[in-house]
Amino acid sequence: MIPLSSLANRKVGVFGLARSGLAxxxxxxxxxxxxxxxxxxxxxxxxxxxxxxxxxxxHDWPWDKLAALVLSPGVPLTHPTPxxxxxxxxxxxxEIIGDIELFAREIAHGAPLIAVTGTNGKSTTTALIGHIxxxxxxxxxxxxxxxxxxxxxxxxxxxxxxxxxxxxxxIDLSPGLKPDVSILSNITPDHIDRHGSMDSYVAVxxxxxxxxxxxxxxxxxxxxxxxxxxxxxxxxxxxxxCVPVSVGKVLGRGVFVLDGVLYDAEGERAARIMDLNxxxxxxxxxxxQNAALAYAATKPYxxxxxxxxxxxxxxxxxxxxxxxxxxxxxxxxxxxxxxxNADAAERALVCFSDIFWIAGGRPKEGGIAPLAPxxxxxxxxxxxxxxxxxxxxxxxxxxxxxLSGTLESALAAAAADAxxxxxxxxxxxxxxxxxxxxxxxxxxxxxxxxxxxVAKLAAQPVREVL
Length: 466
Description:
This protein has 466 residues and is α/β, with parallel strands linked by helices. It folds into three domains: 9-97, NAD(P)-binding Rossmann-like Domain (Rossmann fold); 100-313, UDP-N-acetylmuramoyl-L-alanine:D-glutamate ligase; 323-459, Protein-Tyrosine Phosphatase, Chain A. The protein is 35% helix and 21% strand. The chain has 16 helices and 19 strands. It has helices at residues 19-30, 42-50, 84-91, 99-107, 122-135, 168-172, 192-195, 198-210, 225-234, 285-302, 305-313, 342-349, 388-395, 407-420, 443-458, 462-465, and strands spanning 11-15, 34-38, 66-71, 96-97, 113-117, 139-144, 160-165, 181-184, 217-221, 242-247, 255-258, 261-264, 271-275, 323-328, 331-335, 355-360, 378-384, 401-405, 427-430. The chain has a nine-stranded mixed β-sheet with strand order 6-7-5-8-9-10-11-12-13, sandwiched between helices.
């Protein structure tokens, strides 16, 4: 934990007591702040109270004396409408910030910070950067929107480098965050309901890179038009240098991947770094982009390209992202619960043939219509959650499907159908293309549930499984 001494002896409100909010309450108390906390969910209030946090309805907080409101990233700040507590804080002139902002203020100049954002790929890129830094002898502290909340990481030591995944929600609440290296993987439509428009969503992502320390570095994937435009804007505005990254396109300057081979063209000529096909847990072009981004971001620290290449090749993969969690007979089970939109799901769908696809949840704008080019890979779809009927309309006449309702029902049906299919290597793939919040707390809980169901299935006698 990182105690927040910057708010010692101040009164601070914390609204939202899931992982990041609870971590903020702990860190504030450890630093000597007086914390007033609330969550609309009774179970989260009880959990926080069990740790000694003062639970008080936010209407009763001493608003005229609060130094700040620490808001959970999931609470609406602007769209579709601000939460009532946001309206109250603004009327009381109380600063509204998030846990990442608290982290930034406490750690400022204490250790280097690498921040990763983007629509897709940021979790794998974040974890891979941490893996590379550890291989290069650094003490990598990895967290943020992945794994541990930022304030649950350890205080800085001599060789600490912080690596944080930062969501657009967290950027909104972090005006003082100044990373030493910022990474933008890509931008496709996502979270439009939260930001109001695509332009606003792009602006939020841009803001993180605009906040990068002038002595630092921006690394930007340039294979989509929005991110490419950001690169063009930021590479000529007098800010920190920008490194472009591409997959499938030769760059005169930057880092690129061609036919699976990673090249560094930051010097006088392009140098061959490695064949990414040797990285067994980074399959597909999307993971080649993640590897190229991680290479460019860690190069100033690891120095030796051979160390980076070795670490990429040995990367063990990321939970919930194209993660094989079991086999039953000829059937492989792959957990891609992290795929919360169509673009992310596409990255898994193109990796396999003969797919028995479990999809659905709380839908995102655009649905699964953009996935039509991958439908030929899908033998049958099993639709769950709020999106089931809409997804069925998109698949009707193109892909066989059934309305399964729940993950448990979907897995049972998919496993049975896959085992009886003529395919030599069928894959039951959970890649929902949806948020999880209709049936699960988050994508991790959804993925863990899938893993547990697969383990239970694998433990049954073969005649019961089939």
